[in-house]
Amino acid sequence: MKPNITALERAFELAKSGKFTSVTEVKQAIAREGYSASQLEGPMLARQLRALVKASSPE
Fold first, then answer.
1. For helices 23-32 and 7-16, what crossing angle results, to 10°?
2. pTM above 0.90?
3. How far apart are CA 49 and CA 1, in angstroms?
4. Contact at 8 Å (CB) between 20 and 53?
């Protein structure tokens, strides 16, 4: 876990990293890092994370 960074902020960082191909993978990484993935619920957030993952994935 990074100090002073919320699970939501970390999820956006990870989604932008280009290392993940789905929101599920981002949520799993969040949980592995010790954050609560329960903060990452909701259709709008999923849509935003999905768009970031797609935009950041190498093609």
1. 130
2. no
3. 19
4. yes
